[in-house]
Write a structure and sequence with these properties.
The protein is of the alpha/beta class. It folds into two domains: about 220 residues, Alpha-Beta Complex (Spore Coat Polysaccharide Biosynthesis Protein SpsA, Chain A), CATH 3.90.550.10; about 80 residues. The chain is built from eleven helices and nine strands. Strands 1, 2, 3, 4, 5, 6, 7, 8 and 9 form a nine-stranded mixed β-sheet that branches. α10 crosses α11. The relative contact order is 0.12.
C-alpha cells in the first residue's frame, strides 16, 4: 500500500546560506507535529545542503526533497515557491525560509486550528510573529532585542491587508485547494510576492487568526549589503517600487472595468497611510516642542525663585 502524502508541505527557499539553513532545520525537527514533508528549493544545490541532510538523515526519515530550479529571471522569489507547489502533494502548504524559525507547537497548533470550527470554514490560518533582531553571522547571530510584530492582530479583513501586509509568510498555513481560485505566487516580483499572493487569497477566501506568536522573524537591521541581509533592509528601494507597481496594477484593472475593486481599496489605503505617517511626524515634533517648552518653563520658575535670594 502506498504511503499517503504528508498533510503539510513545508517549502524552504535557500541559496548557499548553510548557517541559516541549519537553524531552520533544527526548528523544523523540533516540531511536535510529525506529518510534514520538507521541500528545499534552490537554484544550485550546494555541498553544504547535501552535508546537512546527510547529518540529519535519520531524523528526516525520507521527509525531504531537494528541488533545483532554473532562475530564468534571477531574484524573483515567487518562482521557487511555485516550483515547489507544483512538484508536491499535500493538504496544506506553508513556507519556512532558511532564515526563519518556528516555535515547536506551530504546525500542531495551526493544523488543529483548521481542523475545528471556525477554522473548518477558512482556507488558511495565520498567527502572530515575534521579531528577533540579531547581530550578523560574523558576530554570531546574537539576539539584540525582541518584540511582537503584530500584537493587535486578532482577525484579518481585506481592508486591513490593503493597508499593509499584516503577517509574515512563515506565519501562514493554507489549504492547497485554495490555489484553484487564488492562483500561484507572482514570478515578476523580487519582493512583496507574499503580499501580492495574500491579497488575491483574501479576495476569494477567509482566514482564521491565532493571536499568539508562534513564529520568529530574524532580522539583521545593520546588515544591508551581503547575502544575509533581510530584503526589508537590503532592498528598500525595490520594496517602494513594487508596492507602487502592485497598487497601480490593480487600480488599472478597476479603471479598465469601470468598477471599484481591489485597486481602489489599495489606493485609498496608501493615501491614508501617507496621511497617517505625516500626522505621526507632526505629533512627534509637537511632543518635542512641548517637552522643550516644559523645560524652559521649569527653568524660568527656578530662575524667578532664585532672584530674591540674590538681593
Amino acid at each position: 500500500m502506498a504511503t499517503p502524502p504528508a498533510r503539510v508541505a513545508v517549502i524552504t527557499r535557500t541559496i548557499d546560506r548553510p548557517e541559516f539553513l541549519r537553524r531552520c532545520l533544527a526548528s523544523l525537527l523540533a516540531q511536535t507535529y510529525p506529518h510534514w514533508q520538507w521541500i528545499i528549493v534552490t537554484p544550485n544545490p550546494e555541498p553544504s545542503v547535501t552535508r546537512l541532510l546527510a547529518e540529519n538523515a535519520a531524523a528526516l526519515a525520507d521527509r525531504v526533497t531537494v528541488l533545483p530550479y532554473a532562475a530564468t529571471t534571477p531574484g524573483m522569489r515567487g518562482l521557487p515557491l511555485n516550483h515547489a507547489i507544483t512538484h508536491s502533494d499535500s493538504e496544506f502548504i506553508t513556507v519556512l525560509d532558511d532564515d526563519d524559525t518556528w516555535a515547536p507547537r506551530f504546525l500542531e497548533t495551526m493544523v488543529a486550528l483548521l481542523d475545528r470550527p471556525p477554522g473548518t470554514l477558512a482556507a488558511g490560518a495565520i498567527c502572530q510573529t515575534e521579531v528577533i533582531e540579531e547581530s550578523s553571522l560574523q558576530e554570531g547571530l546574537v539576539p539584540q532585542r525582541t518584540y511582537t510584530l503584530n500584537p493587535h492582530l486578532r482577525s484579518l479583513s481585506l481592508a486591513q491587508l490593503a493597508v499593509i501586509n499584516q503577517f509574515c509568510i512563515h506565519a501562514f498555513l493554507y489549504r492547497r485547494t485554495a490555489l484553484a481560485a487564488t492562483g500561484l505566487y507572482p514570478e515578476d516580483y523580487p519582493v512583496l510576492e507574499d503580499w501580492h499572493f495574500n491579497l488575491r487569497f483574501l479576495l476569494h477566501h477567509d482566514v482564521v487568526v491565532l493571536p499568539e506568536p508562534l513564529t520568529y522573524y530574524h532580522q539583521r537591521p545593520h546588515v544591508t549589503s551581503t547575502s544575509e541581509a533581510n530584503s526589508l533592509f537590503g532592498e528598500i528601494d525595490a520594496h517602494k517600487f513594487y508596492e507602487s507597481k502592485l497598487i497601480n496594477h490593480h487600480l488599472r484593472q478597476d479603471l479598465a472595468t469601470g468598477r471599484s475593486g481591489l485597486g481602489q481599496l489599495l489606493a485609498t489605503a496608501a493615501q491614508n497611510r501617507v496621511l497617517q505617517d505625516r500626522l505621526h511626524t507632526i505629533e512627534g515634533k509637537l511632543r518635542i516642542i512641548s517637552e522643550k517648552t516644559g523645560k524652559i518653563d521649569a527653568r524660568t520658575k527656578d530662575l524667578k525663585s532664585a532672584l530674591p535670594a540674590k538681593r
